[in-house]
Design brief:
With 340 residues, the protein is α/β, with parallel strands linked by helices. It contains twelve helices and twelve strands. The structure holds nicotinamide-adenine-dinucleotide and 2'deoxy-thymidine-5'-diphospho-alpha-D-glucose.
Length: 340
């Protein structure tokens, strides 16, 4: 039986990581009501939540985290936790135009903090990124206590949001937690990000754009390993703390793409070097030993195993990819929810 007094308010739950979190959470906590508050921007895809859409402990509210009245109406008093995934998340888009990033990532986070305090929410878990630390030197690892040094407009907006979260803890005594995750991959990722884009292009024998020399390093983590860590942070994290979540395995983009082509049986000639991303960070590498030490978490899915299962998922869900690329997924809300 779902208890209304046990609820969790998740923002951005129709996106890639948020939808994995909600699918896991709804399955693991049948008594808890999971409210998914999502503006359904281009990155929000309700097809990602088809498996939970009709369950009694899941509810969707379409709304913008910058809209105070909408958040006030949707967030229950005394709810157990707010988990803030909602964000503009794509670096390339932030280079084209940063305005939406400042609005959602900074103002939206502050709006949530104000209302969570007013509603006496239990905990506030804010999802941040390893990009706030900026580019690491070879062999350098980003730890929780290092100074922040963001490079892209996206990373700068995520850094500003973190500061607002810490300020709310310091000033008002709110119970906040911050996680910084490295590059996630897995099913249901919007095909603008490197791995889903490369998999879908490889499946169609199309060129795969490699920015610059392709020697940039990213620390890949399977999204299910990430959400397992998030559950632990939420239940056992110490108030006010930041926890890093990474794959412990930074890899060069070109090396990742070569393995991907090997698995899909496509030639390396598909790799096409294109103009580099402006201000492209060279290396991200998060040290997640604190999360291991305090919460007993470490990644369990090896990159090769995770990449194989992810490629198999995209091969089995070619229609999902097509609808994501064509924009057809945007009419899903109207099709499923009209008349409700
Ligand atoms: P995503 O782009 O797939 O999804 C973002 C979701 O937020 C979408 O459902 C979108 O509709 C929603 N949203 C956007 N603006 C909103 C607004 N104003 N109000 C309400 N909802 C809004 O993002 P993702 O890759 O799932 O990332 C989730 C979070 O994790 C983000 O905060 C991102 O910065 C962070 N993060 C992502 C990664 C990664 O590798 N994907 C790594 C580290 C951190
Ligand atoms: O590190 C965590 C971050 O990872 C998250 O905070 C962001 O939300 C998420 O988008 C991701 O950012 P990146 O910029 O690292 O991800 P992206 O998939 O866009 O790019 C991964 C790497 O691949 C990066 O070095 C740029 C390169 N790239 C990307 C694309 C889309 C290419 O070479 N070709 C491409 O077409």
């Amino acid at each position: 039986m779902v208890r209304k007094d046990m609820s969790i308010f998740v923002t951005g739950g129709a996106g890639f990581i948020g939808s994995q979190f909600i699918r896991d959470r709804v399955a693991q906590n049948p008594d808890e009501l999971v409210i998914n508050f999502d503006a359904l921007t281009y990155a929000g895809n309700l097809e990602n939540l088809e498996s939970v859409a009709n369950l009694p402990n899941y509810r969707l509210v379409k709304g913008d985290i910058c809209d105070e009245q909408a958040v006030l109406a949707a967030m229950p008093d005394d709810c157990g936790a707010v988990v803030n995934f909602a964000a503009e998340s794509h670096v390339d888009r932030s280079i084209l135009s940063a305005k939406e990033f400042v609005k959602t990532n900074v103002l939206g986070t502050q709006t949530l903090l104000n209302i969570a305090r007013h509603k006496r929410v239990g905990r506030f878990l804010h999802i941040s990124t390893d990009e706030v630390g900026g580019s690491m030197e070879p062999n350098q690892w980003f730890t929780e206590d290092m100074p922040l040094n963001p490079s892209s407009p996206y990373a700068a907006s995520k850094t500003a949001a973190e500061h607002m979260v810490r300020a709310a803890a310091h000033t008002f005594g709110m119970d906040v937690l911050i996680t910084r995750t490295s590059n996630n991959y897995g099913p249901y990722q919007f095909p603008e990000k490197l791995l889903p884009l490369a998999i879908s292009n490889a499946m169609q024998g199309k060129p795969i754009p490699v920015y610059g020399d392709g020697l940039q390093e990213r620390d890949w983590i399977h999204v299910a390993d990430n959400t397992r860590a998030l559950m632990l942070v939420l239940s056992k994290g110490r108030p006010g703390e930041t926890y890093h979540i990474g794959g412990k395995n930074p890899l060069r983009n070109l090396d990742v793409l070569k393995v991907l082509l090997q698995i899909t049986g496509q030639p390396e000639s598909l790799l096409t070097h294109v103009t580099d991303r402006l201000g492209h960070d060279r290396r991200y590498a998060v040290d997640c030993s604190k999360t291991h030490r305090e919460l007993g978490w470490q990644p369990e899915i090896s990159f090769e195993e995770g990449l194989r299962s992810t490629i198999a998922w995209y091969q089995d869900h070619a229609e999902w990819v097509e609808r994501a690329k064509s924009g057809e997924y945007k009419t899903y809300y109207e099709r499923m929810y009209s008349g409700r």
